[in-house]
Amino acid sequence: MCAKLRLLGIGMALARRECLHSAILFFFLLLGFFLDSAHANWRTLGLTGINPAGAAIYLREKCTRPKHFGEKLSSICSYNDNILQAVANGAKMGIEECQHQFSMSRWNCSTFANTTSVFGGVTDIRSRETAYVFAISSAGVAYSVTKACSKGELNECSCDHKVHKRKPRRGNWQWGGCSEDINFGEKFSRTFVDSEENSESAFGLMNIHNNEAGRRIIRSQMKRICKCHGMSGSCNVRVCWRKLPTFRAIGDVLMQRYEGASYVRVVERRQKDEEKRKKRGKKLRAANPIFKQPNRTELVFLDPSPDYCERNETLGILGTHGRQCVQGSPRVDGCSILCCGRGYQTKIREVEENCNCKFFWCCKVKCETCHSKKEEHFCN
Amino acid sequence: MPGVILENLSGRKLFVLVSILLIGQFICFLIGGLIAPTPSSADTILATKCHDAGNNSDKWFYVRGKGKCNTIEDLKLKYSDTETQKHMANHIVFAFQIPTPRDNMVLDYSRWQQNLIGVLMFEVVYNPEAEMEPRTVISMDARLGYRNYGDAEDDWKYYASSFETRTLDCSIEVKKAGHHYNCSIVPLFELGSLHHDYYVINIRLPVDSDRKLNHGLGFVTDMWLVAINQNGGYTKVWMSMKVTFFPIIVAIMIWSWNRIHQLSRSPVLLEYMLLFLGCALTFLNMPLELFTLLFDLPFMLLFGDIRQGIFYAALLSFWLVFAGEHLMLQDEQKNHLRMYWKHLSGVAIGCISLFIFDLCERGIQLRNPFYSIWVTDLGTHLALTFIILAGISAALYFFFLSYMIWQVFTNISVKRATLPNMSNVRRLHYEGIIYRFKFLMLATLLCAAMTVIGFILDQISEGRWKWDEDLYLEYTSAVHTGVYGMWNIYIFALIVLYSPSHKQWPSEADLASTTEIEFNEISSLTSFSRKAALD
């Protein structure tokens, strides 16, 4: 078994006792290799993480530095690797959703496989784009973990013990069921994603706020569905559950939040407040006191965004040169905005398009090909 | 029904009895609210898409444990015309393995959880190139298997299978690629007994161009199963209530029947009706569900419905007969159940049509758990016919009952006017009737109103009421146990209060008092005649 696992090169074998010798060796080799990426962003899992090896190594690396992890997180270190697969999926979903939502904006959520920060230097700016990225990826983790729980892939998923106020036991589930919806996913995302942030710094505070906003959006978009059953099918007994929204819906709502994001600054908590709750001394307040304070589902940012018009290698901005735009649109996808006033070219192209399509379950679309001429506009 | 306990009970004793009963009622409500969990709970499970390499319709596809299936992560749309894609659909198996693990424990169903209902939710992705009809028929090949604690992990056994068609009603708000249709929930199966520990459900959506199977179906990417089961704790609380009420009601019935038999007369109709009501309640109270802990009894759900139906029929009939017996017209003539056939036929028709409906739904589910009467148009019409019939007879019944009660009240007011002119015995007799009737009316209206209000509040509220941080009231359960306890207490009170009173027993003292009354009557008569003569 050991040999087979090593052949596969899967880091998961690390914890298995029979492979301990070789595993330790293997581990140190890997540690040396990845020492460089000690500050690697977990979102890279979304790009590379489809192979479990990367995910497992990432977690081992984090778990060897417990000071980085809070006490809560030590439990995560004992989780099995399926959960990291879920994290990787979540990161991927976040990135894909970001790219979908920003596909027609000046910054199109471009990713770079060769950097440690996934989105280049853009996410080091404390801008609203960063706010969106953090919110959507934290939501992605919560969403993906919740889905994995629903599939029964993770053993760690918990029930809502608040309801019963009892320790987890087999009998409790049989007694009162499991009123779990997304609590575990949220909690996991909170410990996992927020552990990266330093709650003393302004940027850390902003990121924690946005992470939480992303998670809360999921809950706010859940729909309650009820079904009646009872004597002769009457509504004697009614049972309700909550349906997970699609991730697209979460992306959409977060996009609205992005557009209405609040410009904030850090203020020191007053002495009196501090006595009340000794958690932290800093908090975020709207930069302009005449605006209302951002609530916990709203995105916040600390600095204005760069203009994203020109290419900037250090920040990882690709610029809008050569991007396709929509003529006459008043929104961000319109040529006047997207091209930053540089003007655009129009090309007429003969395109082959799918038309008169018929869908066959599961996965096939049978289309005819139609030819048409299409005007396309590209920024200078 | 002359001289019942209610009439002869002193006000203080009645107050004490009613207070005890009310305390009992309150306890029933609190047991449901504080001890019992919600009546049932729902788990939502996301399907794992398994790949069936060789169209093995006999093989089980499951998610966890030895021999688990090869999963397909995401279904991707392909624009192609090749034949290889064509049969892809028949190789996808949506697999659910319930219950799902929690808190690092492999959970298993307990027999206390009684029954299991499966409901499907479909995730259909909108595709602008090929939109789906708002009403689509979906064909499913569904199989249900089970395994018990201690069995090998791959030892799944067949339970049921069926080829089912369901109608999927879908709508979409934002017609953009990547958004999902908003589809109605689809009932899948209903198990009357949750006898085994683990279940697996395999669903295929077969595609066949000849039979036009699943032809209009959109891009179903995911499937959710909502597994609804009764909560074990609720069953335990429920059963303990039954176990408590069962001997109490039996004892009080025996006590009452003994008293009736100690009388010189034969029992009257109302006493028979009370006995019948008590028997129906006892039948309902019998904790027969405990047998499901030992045996696989899928008919328990149907049987429970029948028991409840009999109880309701008895209660409704009792009210009719009670009102009829207090009409105070010709007391002797009404003493037969035959006289009430017109009124009771409403109850009978209603109950029979509900029974037939129940047989059509739950009876057939005994053979095929995937069956639902609502999925075909014919079945829906049939079901609606029976339900409407039951509704009409309910309306008729209430019309009759209201009419009779109105009659009783007019008679009461007529009798009231003549009361002062009556002899003592006759006055006492009529006053007794009026008091009995009014007492029952009050109690019944109170109970009915409480039941209705309880259920309405349950429908509109969220199910759990918070008193403070630590104290939650499980309102739905509280209503259920409260109402159940209330009707038990109501019938208990009826049997006690409407039993023949001691004071009517033909003892020495009684005989003496009757002669005294007769003597009084005679003396009053003589004085009357004397007075008349004087005039």
Automatic annotation (TrEMBL), chain A:
Gene Ontology cellular component terms for the protein in this record: extracellular space
Cell compartment(s), UniProt: Secreted, Extracellular space, Extracellular matrix
Record carries keyword Secreted: yes
Domain of life: Eukaryota
Matching PROSITE patterns: WNT1
Signal sequence range: none
GO biological process: canonical Wnt signaling pathway; cell fate commitment; cell morphogenesis; developmental growth involved in morphogenesis; muscle organ development; neuron differentiation
Matches recorded under InterPro entries: Wnt, Wnt6, Wnt_C, Wnt_CS
Keywords of the record: Developmental protein, Disulfide bond, Extracellular matrix, Lipoprotein, Secreted, Wnt signaling pathway
GO molecular function: cytokine activity; frizzled binding
PANTHER family, alphabetized: PROTEIN WNT, WNT RELATED
Family classification: Belongs to the Wnt family.
Function description: Ligand for members of the frizzled family of seven transmembrane receptors.
Protein name: Protein Wnt
Organism: Bemisia tabaci
UniProtKB/TrEMBL annotation, chain B:
Span of domain Wntless-like transmembrane: 231-502
Main location: endoplasmic reticulum
TM helices/strands, residue ranges: 14-36, 237-257, 269-288, 308-328, 340-359, 379-406, 437-457, 477-498
Gene Ontology MF annotations: Wnt-protein binding
Subcellular compartments: Endoplasmic reticulum membrane; Endosome membrane; Golgi apparatus membrane; Postsynaptic cell membrane
Domain Wntless GOLD as annotated: residue spans: 48-230
Superkingdom classification of source: Eukaryota
Keyword tRNA processing in record: no
InterPro entries the record matches: WLS-like_TM (IPR047843), WLS_GOLD (IPR053936), Wntless (IPR009551)
Pfam family, one: WLS-like_TM
Alphabetical UniProt keywords: Cell projection, Developmental protein, Endosome, Golgi apparatus, Membrane, Postsynaptic cell membrane, Segmentation polarity protein, Synapse, Transmembrane, Transmembrane helix, Wnt signaling pathway
Membrane topology: Multi-pass membrane protein
GO terms (BP aspect): intracellular protein transport; segment polarity determination; Wnt protein secretion; Wnt signaling pathway
Entry keyword annotation includes Cell division: no
One GO location term (cellular component): postsynaptic membrane
Function: A segment polarity gene required for wingless (wg)-dependent patterning processes, acting in both wg-sending cells and wg-target cells. In non-neuronal cells wls directs wg secretion. The wls traffic loop encompasses the Golgi, the cell surface, an endocytic compartment and a retrograde route leading back to the Golgi, and involves clathrin-mediated endocytosis and the retromer complex (a conserved protein complex consisting of Vps35 and Vps26). In neuronal cells (the larval motorneuron NMJ), the wg signal moves across the synapse via the release of wls-containing exosome-like vesicles.
Subunit structure: Interacts with wg; in the Golgi. Interacts with Vps35, a component of the retromer complex; wls stability is regulated by Vps35.
Family statement: Belongs to the wntless family.
Protein name in UniProt: Protein wntless
